[in-house]
Here is the input.
Amino acid sequence: MSRVEIFEVGPRDGLQNEQRFIPTGDKVALVDCLSRVGFKRLEVASFVSPRWVPQMADSAEVLRQIARAPGVRYAALTPNQKGFDAALAARADEVAIFASASEGFSRANLNCSVAESLQRFVPVMAAASAAGIPVRGYVSCVTECPYDGPTPPAAVARLAADLRDMGCYEISLGDTIGRATPDSVAAMLRVVLQEVPAAQLAGHFHDTGGMALANIEASLEFGLRVFDAAVGGLGGCPYAPGASGNVATEVVHEWLTGMGWQTGLDRDVLAQAAAMARDLCKGES
Ligand code: HMG
Ligand code: MG
Here is the structure.
């Protein structure tokens, strides 16, 4: 039976967008529930500037308080050396560096050019290698940038190859603003796959345009077998009208299993985690 892995990013990519500060205990409870679902990798923290993303300011505390399940890797975002040092001290099992295929989003998200962001990752990669910590790489805006418009597939391919060459074990291709379509995803993947094999790629689709499942389907046809998702669709709160975040894990899971893919996830525990996520969103007024 063919397997697809869902990489759960809700406690990071989802919660980082919530306006109300979610108490640390609630974050820990959500992660502890997710630890029982069967994920191999859970992104639960982000060591970025607390002035840029206040919601993630308690990342070290979250990593300290969670009950770590055997066989689960707890991941954290690290934009620079300072972030990596904090992630290491907090005992993150793996970290992720993140860059943009477009200059506009790089400036807005990291306050530097794409080339400068790669320079900042050099010491992170060296320190991670010395500490034996696997590093994942994200490429944002793989089909479209909110500032620069459509992203040339060649720019995505070049950046994905750069991150791979720096030592990232997997590159997650992000439709950051959820405007990709199966056609734009296919056009992008055709070029990226000339540089990086499907086995080293993941799809990271936000669902703003309601096309995330169609984009996952297109990616499956190109051989991708890892997809990022956020429980409850956290990140824009699908339960709040007009907003939507990462594609919801439980929706991806239901759709994949309906198509005959195996995910290794426990549907009932996943539903519990989705209910917890829904409650966290409800707390928002
Ligand atoms: P900067 O202002 O250019 O950085 O921000 P700086 O080096 O000049 O430092 C400014 C201040 O930030 C200093 O503090 C530093 O110590 C502090 P001060 O002396 O003024 O008190 N600082 C830090 N504090 C904590 N942790 C750190 C850190 N680094 C510096 N690691 C910086 C540059 C990268 C820090 C900033 O732009 C930043 O934090 N950006 C992160 C933005 C972010 O987290 N975005 C969301 C995640 S990316 C995403 O969601 C996309 C993804 O899901 C894929 C997709 O969907 O496409 C991954
Ligand atoms: Mg994202």
